[in-house]
Structures
1.
Amino acid sequence: MTHRYLMVVEGDGSTNYSAYSPDVPGVAAVGPTREECEREMREAIEFHIEGLAEDGEPVPEAHSTAGYAIVQVA
């Protein structure tokens, strides 16, 4: 079964990027580039969910969405 989780990626390229998912608490990743960080995060989520399955725990449901607030700044 495929699950789709929101990844929040933070960073501006001046340091490492970091990522987390609001739907998978406690799972985070870092990487020197955005692409590497996202790859590490996908792997971390997969590893976490495999561990949950092995322990007979439920897989977290994905509920988070994202959007942007567009505002004018004087």
2.
Amino acid sequence: MGIYSVLAYSVRSRVQEISIRIALGAKISDVLRLVVIEGMKPTIVGIVVGAFGAWLLSGILSRLIYGVTATDPYTFVAVALLLATVALVACLIPAYRATRVEPLTALRSE
């Protein structure tokens, strides 16, 4: 929810910039890439830092969770993939909306 909210706000505040990019000939894929990369950078950093922190605290975690070894690679990969997938979907919704911006309407409203 947080990634979606922050990215949706960012896209709304950059409507004029995105409109100019589209008016100057930017492809829809370029706008999609711009917005998705903006949202996925903090997600990837968070996954890496979180995995490192979980690895450091794995001894404590292994005592709390039954049946999971201290450095269970399947759990680490599954959680990272789940978080990345959710973040990608949260990024694609504002990215799709950004591609639907009508350049003339957006520039006239400002």
